[in-house]
Amino acid sequence: MLNQKRVEPSPGQESVWDYPRPPRLERSSRRIRVVFNGITIVDTQRAQRMLETSHPPVYYLPSENVKMEYLVQTSQKSFCEWKGQARYYTIVVGDKQAPNAAWDYPNPTQKYAAIADHLALYPRLMDACYVDDEQVQSQQGDFYGGWITSDIVGPFKGGTGTWGW
Fold it and tell me: What's the confidence (pLDDT) of residue 143?
């Protein structure tokens, strides 16, 4: 962890340093809500939660619970060694846009097939994201889309000086 000390989790908390690599995917029944430009664009209790060493969870949200009329697919693409090829979306609500703020894996690898027809997004680009009734803090940096809540402890990869972890 290069000069970083793992934060010891208190009862009811998880340490991102206990998450596996390759990542583990699990269902979550927690209520996930996303607000952008005053509109709730996601409200679901059927998310998938991706857990990977040193990263806060990323929530993959079923597209049927996303107001897809606010998403416009872009030409942006990326590749994940675990999940495969991702495509990106700009979120547009009224006069406000968040370019390449959401992504999906239309043909994920077999191990992560459960995220097909699900989208993830960067909390830092939204007005607010909630897990149950707690507003999440976004993971630092512009690469990862982790959701930090009071029950998750780090330190977290993503900020300045953490790429070598």
Answer: 77
For residues 38, 49, 87 and 160, what is the CA-based torsion angle, rounded to 10 degrees? 80
What is the C-alpha to C-alpha distance for residues 114 and 62, in angstroms, rounded to an integer?
A: 10
Instruction: Give the tens place of pLDDT for each residue, 127-160.
Output: 999 999 999 999 988 778 999 999 999 999 888 8
- Tell which CATH classification among 2.170.150.40, 2.60.40.1530, 2.60.40.10, 1.20.1640.10 matches the domain 14-153: 2.170.150.40
> What are the structural domain ranges in the chain?
14-153
CA 88/CA 25 separation, integer angstroms = 20
Distance from C-alpha of 61 to C-alpha of 15, rounded to nearest angstrom: 23
Q: Say how many Å lie between the first and final Cα of the chain, rounded.
A: 5
0.70 exceeded by pTM:
yes
- Give pLDDT, residue 2: 47
Per-residue b/e over 53-62, b at no fewer than 16 CB within 10 Å?
bbbbbbbbbb
Q: Pick out the chain residues at pLDDT < 70.
A: 1-3
